[in-house]
C-alpha cells in the first residue's frame, strides 16, 4: 500500500523526531509537556494526520500510543502521542529521566484506514499475507490495531490475526468469523538512528 497525504522527506522526518524528543525531555525533566523549540513552518506539519509514537529501550518496547483518525495537526499529534507513550502507556511505568538517553523514538504517520473486503477467512489470509498492512479489527465493542511493523514479529497472517484478536479481548480464533470488520492502512515509518 502506498501512503496518502504529503510524503515527509528526510529533513522533515528528523524535525518531527527532534520535536517528539524535546517534548518527552521537557516532560520527564520539568514535569510538563509544553512544546520546546518549534517545527519548521511548513504546511505538512499543519495537515491533519494520525500518528503513532513508539518508544524502545535496548530494542524492547517501552511505550506505544497513537491515534487512528486524523483529528489534529501532524505536529500536535506527534507531540501528544510522544508524551502519552512516555508517560501514559498503561503497560509501563512513566519514563524516568535516567532512561531518556537509552530511548529510541519511532514515528508512524498513518493514512486514512479503508475497509478490507473479503469473501471468507482464506481470502482474508491471502490479502493480508500479500499486502501486510496495518490493520484495525472491530467487533461487538472490541477494537484493536497492529501497525504494519508488527508483521516483522508475526510474519504469518494466521498468527498476526490471532494476536490481534487477543489484543482486542476476543478469542484467538475469532478472526475466522466472517462477521468481524477490518480496516487496513499504510504508514510512513521513520526512527531515530541508534
Automatic annotation (TrEMBL):
Q: Where is the AMMECR1 domain?
A: 11-194
How is this protein named in the record? AMMECR1 domain-containing protein
Q: Which organism is it from?
A: Desulfobulbus oralis
